[in-house]
């Protein structure tokens, strides 16, 4: 097929009056776009292009970026949430509502800003006998009446005394009158 026929068949000829794109116009536009810049684009070029063509301000119906005003509004609303304020000895407790609440620790336990939890010696609910306890880092005293329940049957202890030490099978090794606090071994 002669070149002229290709131009006519594919609209590359001079048919601009009929709505076709002329070959000369196509080639000129194509070459111009390919050779628009002899240097690499800079970050300023890209930023300007994005800001001009791609960045859309978000609203209730449009996904886009937040303006400074949006951020200020968001931050003010966040700061106004009274349930999002944690006072001393409070922790966030969440539930299925996705709205965590600041809850006070019980009166017999506290939590420090570093996450350390301290509980009074009688504050351990649901203590499970025979669970492994590591007293290596304990501080202060161990109150024997809190931790011996369920260890041994006391058969080797005198009346008024309670099991203090037990062996691996739970047999009583030593007893106490339960009024004595045992200082932490150093």
From TrEMBL:
| The name this protein goes by in its record | Uncharacterized protein
